Amino acid sequence: MMDWIEREAIYLWYYLDLQLRQILPYWALGILLGSAVSVFGKRWIHGAFAGVGRGKWGWMGVVPASLLGIASPLCMYGTLPIAASFSEKGVRDDHLAAFMMSSVLLNPQLLMYSAALGQSALLIRLASCFLCGCAAGWLVRACCRGKPFFDFRGFHARAGRDTHPSLPIRYLLNVLRNIRATAPWFSVGVVLTALYQIHVPQDWAAGLFGGGGFGVLLAATLGVPLYMCGGGTIPLLMQWLASGMTLGSAAAFMLTGPATKITNLGALKIVLGAKHFSLYLGFVLAFSLLTGLAVNAWFAVA
After folding, report:
1. The pTM is what?
2. What is the C-alpha to C-alpha distance for residues 238 and 235, in angstroms, rounded to an integer?
3. Which residues constitute the domain of residue 218?
4. What is the dihedral of CA 244, 217, 192, 190, to 10 degrees?
């Protein structure tokens, strides 16, 4: 019994050390970048979006709106009050939909984390999140002409926490808040990945998430209950990809995960209502599945 415990401890330490060496630099850079955007760039990003939302961009307005949503460092509960204030100032619902959708899916910090997955996965995540935001905006514009899509009653812009008069101290406090928010889930992801490497056969992911529509569908479906936070899922995705998961299945998982994270769904249910909330879930699952199939088809031909 003691030999088994010692052997397990040695294996666990080895894989924990391996995971930390691979992931920790990206997590640290993500924290630093995310805090920099939050402290120094958030006001400019939101000001630029307000300008786009009130401008005469037409159908193309969702393009910069989706890009600015990715650049925004706020989580869903931070985005909704901002979106409510934009709505009060006359920003169109299709622009708000694009901004909010892409903001839910990706932010500068998570983008840096995703670099650990490799260049192809990083570019796929960036492109798919941007296109998902655009698609959401275009669908809202096409289907809800002249009718309100969101109900922001009860949501109001909150005072920011980055208020210290010294910029360096303001930045440091933001970094510490980001560490407190992400470190527990990052640690959980690393431990789960280490246990996965010890106890799960290497060909398991290839059989489950390999080529074909079933693997993409399964990944998109599992993204709903398994997604913890961006930092927590990166170690698992790294191991799944190394074990044979296709990039299409990974893309589907990376879309449904943050879009259906339980805390995000709770907030979205309030502003969407039952009917629009059901449409949102159907859109996310359909877009994730189509994206995964398209990515797999692209790499099969390339």
Report:
1. 0.87
2. 5
3. 15-301
4. 70
